[in-house]
Amino acid sequence: MNLIGNWIEVCEMDDIDEEDVIRFDYGDRTFAVYRSADSEYYATDGYCTHGKFHLANGLVMGNMIECPKHNGRFDYTSGAAKRAPVCVALKTYQVKIENDKVYIQIE
User: Fold this and answer.
1) Family assignment (predicted)?
2) Is the N or the C terminus of the chain less surrounded, counting Cβ atoms within 10 Å?
3) 73 Cβ contact partners less than 8 Å away, ≥ 6 residues apart
4) CB 41 within 8 A of CB 102
């Protein structure tokens, strides 16, 4: 795993299927990294803000991720809570692609 400044290498671009999500753990933090239908990449905190279940086990539908526990939904492009029972937004992270690798920016 490469760390360039505050950018962390997550995976190869092709490691995430279109309209899918993967789990990425770094230290004591966990993230969900998404690939949209048009091959744009996004990243959020990994756990649902309601039930603390990992979103990588959820269902991606368009630009939404549905939590596998209570079916709450978030817009993974903005982090916005979109369907009850979730009401607290997800933190999002910048993503960049370099040499066919996906990186997320952390603080």
Assistant:
1) Belongs to the bacterial ring-hydroxylating dioxygenase ferredoxin component family.
2) C
3) 61, 64, 65, 66, 67, 81, 82, 83, 86
4) yes
Q: Does residue 63 come out as left (phi exceeding 0), alpha (psi in the -120 to 50 range) or beta?
A: alpha
| Four-way CATH pick for 3-105: 2.102.10.10, 1.20.120.790, 3.40.50.300, 2.40.50.200 | 2.102.10.10
Under 8 Å between Cβ of 23 and 44: no
Cα(73)–Cα(70) distance, integer angstroms: 9
How far, in Å, CA of 62 to CA of 8, rounded? 26
Mind listing the pLDDT tens digit for each residue in 58-88?
A: 999 999 999 999 999 999 999 999 999 999 9
Report the sign of the C-alpha dihedral through residues 90, 70, 72, 62, in that order.
positive
Q: What's the pLDDT tens digit per position in 30-43?
A: 999 999 999 999 99
